[in-house]
Amino acid sequence: MSYIKKDTVLCGVKVGEHSFDADKMTDELYERVVKRGCNFVYIRTKIGELQPREDFIKWARFLTENKVYFHFGTHRPPSDSVEQFDSELVEKIKKIAGEYFLGDAISEPGTAMACNFSGYYPPSGYLKKQPSADCADMKQAHDRYVEKVRKYVVINKEIGMPNILNIEATALSKYNIEAGINLPILEMMNGNPDNLVPFIRGASRAYGLDKWGTLIAHEWYGGRRHFDMLKRKRLELAYKFAYMQGSNMIVMESGDEAVNSYDTHLTADSEICKDYRDVLANTVKFVKEDIRPKGGPKVKLAFVSGRYDAWGGFCGSSLWDQFHREEWAHGDAEHSWRILDELGTRRKWADVENFGDYDFSALPAYGAYDVVPIEEDTDALCRYEYLIFVGWNSMTDEDMDKLSEYVRRGGKLLMTAAHLNYNTKRDAAFDMPPEEKMKELFGCRFTGKTVRTNSGTKFAKDSKNSEILYPVSEDLMCDPQFSAGYAEYAEVELCGGVASGVLSDSFWKEGNETAVSVVENKLGKGTATLVTSINYPGNTAVYPFYRAMVREFVSASARNCKIKVIGSDRVRWSVYDGGKVYLLNTDYDVPAVIKLVVGETEETITLDSLELKSIQL
Predict the structure, then answer these.
(1) How far apart are the first and last CA of the chain?
(2) Rounded distance, CA 151 to CA 15, Å?
(3) How far, in Å, CA of 452 to CA of 439, rounded?
(4) Residues 6+ apart with CB under 8 A from 436
(5) How far apart are CA 572 and CA 240, in angstroms?
(6) CA angle, residues 250, 253, 258, in degrees to nearest 5
(7) CATH architecture for segment(s) 10-289
(8) Spatial CA neighbour of 311 closest among 115, 459, 117
(9) Whole-model pTM?
(10) pLDDT in tens, 451-483
(11) Residues 516-529: tens digit of each pLDDT
């Protein structure tokens, strides 16, 4: 392993969640950080109060002497924050601490200004919720959000902060990075980390950031029963999952020194807090001993976070802070992201559309996927062999050109007609792409007509993408597949593309074929696949159809992968450069058995419950 450069992983705690005593801060830092072998601390000062400048100098010296990386957290949207720093103080801290001073963090902008419940903040006081102005469309809402976050970024840049960090509990990391955040941190367990980690990792990669972190808010969001045994086990899994997925900073928000939530008050001597400290200690030991290669886990398949998509993945059911307007509530576009909830679980044994020699339906190639922003350039998209659109997207000419180039270079694209809508308004009419761009990417044109039907689909025998296995039916006497109610499809005229799926309501070969449901187009080295539905596959009749397409793309990406994991779908796994493999059994109670297949060789491995195993191939 001497040729592999070990990745930097910082592990520690947050100070200031429940109490903040500046006079005892050095002692607290020693007990909770230095004494436990941690190399990282996040210090949040008292909200709304200025801290004496000499305190920051004192803490910086102490932490630097003990080789502990640190950052502060003094910005708390949506209210204007008390400015703790100026350029002179920042320069002094930088001279004292050098690389150990990471910067200042903006706390939860997406939660506060885009996704949270309208009543999350108190009606008065420092954290009073600011009123939200009505937005004309998704673009204006996006622009306002990025502008608000950028305000905090500019404050930090102007005084010379080495990094501008943020703590974010939602899927909106890409917009924070767009605003200038260069060290994003995802708050776990808010939402499902299986879903949300790919958002922050994919956005970080797309924007060229080599580090991202996780803050585990386990006391509040790991479960609402503190004495529950599954909650204790869940913390261990959260740490291990964050590490194997590539997080460079793993910090426990609270719970190691006290628990004060859900009407429960426990001191540091309690059994719960001792358990939390044990999990932290074991993680610190593992991270120090393990060699995790730089670059993050290998990823072959990505879902696309569309332009102006505002699904948060945690908290609230409104978009862009427009709580008082029903048309801005989560709709079919946002509900389409539920396809991610199916990943990690293999298709049912009786699912006859699950094909292959082995069942690869749970996770894509190498066990991991990213969520990549459509806003980024073609090179960022081309790091993935497969791209799948799911949530809201307002298409542009630039994006159409990027996708065409992506396919031309060998990419395999899947999307619905709904994702081609140029409109930026909620519930507005379908605004078709230019005809020439449709012909280039998908080898077809929209006629301007639509078909509303409850028909199912019959598929062609072979896909233009040789790795995709359709449920063959087009030339056979058999039932159409995936009929689930009425949906609206765009009528297309083929201009080089092929009809790989047709809508039909008949068992017979000569049945009533009403329209094309799947178009495939070979472009350069790749293939573009279009499901012609103009309904997003959320709570609509299209969902079973699109779900099956997505699950097949996931399986296809894994079938020809050099490294495969076959077996229990409770096992999460990732692969790094140099053949480093991580296997995590997420089952709380029982061991998991898997086959690790590398080329022509295979090995049977048993993982104890909660076990994280690293293997160097």
Answers:
(1) 10
(2) 26
(3) 23
(4) none
(5) 10
(6) 135
(7) Alpha-Beta Barrel (3.20)
(8) 115
(9) 0.96
(10) 999 999 999 888 999 899 998 876 778 888 898
(11) 999 999 999 999 99
For 180, list phi and psi in degrees, rounded to 5: 125, 0
Domain ranges of the chain: 10-289, 301-559, 563-616
**Helical packing angle, 53-65 and 87-97, nearest 10°:** 20
Q: Which residues contact 234 (CB under 8 A, 6 or more apart)?
A: 189, 218, 222, 223
- Residue matched to tokens 């628990």: 259
Closest CA to 168 of 129, 227, 111: 111
Amino acid of residue 158: E
Name residue 118's amino acid. Answer: S
Q: Please state, in angstroms and rounded to a whole number, the distance separating the CA atoms of residues 317 and 328.
A: 9
- List Cβ neighbours of 22 (8 Å cut-off, separation of 6 or more): 51, 52, 55
Does residue 584 surpass a pLDDT of 80?
Answer: yes
Tokens, residue 233: 């086990």
Phi and psi dihedrals of 556, rounded to 5?
A: -60, -40
Q: Tell me the angle at which helices 271-289 and 229-244 cross, rounded to the nearest 10 degrees.
A: 20
Closest to 560 (Cα-Cα) out of 379, 301, 371, 302: 301
Q: H helices within 102-258, ranges in order? A: 109-110, 138-158, 173-178, 193-206, 218-221, 229-244
Residue of 115, 182, 178, 114 whose CA lies nearest to 150 = 178
SS (H, E, C) 508-569: CCCCCEEEEEEEEEEECCEEEEEECECCCCCCCCCHHHHHHHHHHHHHHHHHCCCEEEEECC
Q: At what angle do helices 229-244 and 193-206 cross, to 10 degrees?
A: 20
Beta strands, E only, 7-61: 10-15, 40-44
Is 3.40.47.10 the CATH number for 301-559?
Answer: no
Instruction: Please state the separation of Cα 573 from the chain's center in Å.
Output: 16
Neighbours of 166 (CB within 10 A): 29
Residues 6+ apart with CB under 8 A from 65: none
Decide if pLDDT at 54 tops 80.
Answer: yes
Q: Is 589 exposed, middle or buried (0-12, 13-18, 19+ CB in 10 A)?
A: exposed
What is the Rg, in whole angstroms, of the alpha carbon atoms belonging to the chain? 25
Residue 494, φ and ψ in degrees, nearest 5: -75, 135
Mutual orientation of helices 397-408 and 435-442 as an angle, nearest 10°? 20
Helix (H) or strand (E) holding 410: none
Handedness of CA 586, 615, 291, 208 (dihedral sign): negative
- The pairing of strands 259-261 and 264-266 is antiparallel
Token representation of residue 185: 């941190």
DSSP state, residue 472: B
